[in-house]
Write a structure and sequence with these properties.
This protein is mostly helical and about 170 residues long. The chain has a domain at about 70-165: Endolytic murein transglycosylase (Dna Ligase, domain 1, 2-Layer Sandwich). It is about 55% helix and about 5% strand. It has 6 helices and 2 strands, in the order αααβααβα. The protein has helices spanning about 5-30, 45-55, 70-100, 115-125, 130-140, 160-165, and strands at about 105-110, 150-155. It has a two-stranded antiparallel ribbon. α4 crosses α5.
Length: about 170
């Protein structure tokens, strides 16, 4: 009996592991719950049901009215909108400067997730700051406190006034 002890243990383990694998295969078969072959294509109704069960909606290609965009197209549209907003801000700044009141009012929009570098570029572009590097050095402690929204500047504000307006809570 001692001579065959290792063989008997191996034989018993083999039977037990084989039974466990067979149980897993049977359970996996019953969970799928369909009589389809694995490579058989889904019908449109089955596809809609499967997508809905996973939280997705199907969108037919070429539908009129509902246009879907790729991430690249969306990023390009957002960049174009930012440029248009900055151009409008420059135009309104030019109009208010030409009005002859002496004090010009400039509006600047801070978009969501704008970095301090982005804001400094925009402020330099509309003529509020002369030195981006100096402004960034002074505003760096407030970089994570920039608030999304429209900032309104009158005249030629100091860096402290600009930072106060950039971090002011907006509606």
């Amino acid at each position: 009996m001692r001579k065959r002890r290792g063989w008997l243990i191996g034989f018993g383990l083999g039977i037990a592991l084989g039974a466990a694998v067979l149980q897993l295969m049977t359970a996996a078969d019953s969970v799928s719950g369909s009589d389809r072959l694995p490579n058989e294509p889904l019908s449109l109704e089955e596809l809609k049901n499967e997508a809905g069960a996973k939280g997705y909606d199907l969108v037919r290609s070429g539908t009129v009215g509902d246009k879907t965009y790729t991430q690249q197209q969306l990023d390009q549209a957002v960049a174009e909108a930012k440029q248009a907003a900055e151009a409008a801000a420059k135009a309104s700044a030019g109009k208010s400067a030409a009005s002859g009141s002496g004090e010009r009012t400039i509006m600047f929009y801070i978009w969501e997730k704008a970095s301090l570098q982005d804001v400094a570029n925009g402020l330099k572009g509309i003529g509020l700051i002369d030195d981006k590097a100096a402004f960034i050095r002074q505003a760096k402690p407030y970089a994570n406190k920039l608030r999304v929204g429209v900032c309104v500047f009158t005249g030629k504000p100091s860096y402290e006034q600009i930072i106060a307006e950039l971090t002011r809570g907006k509606n």
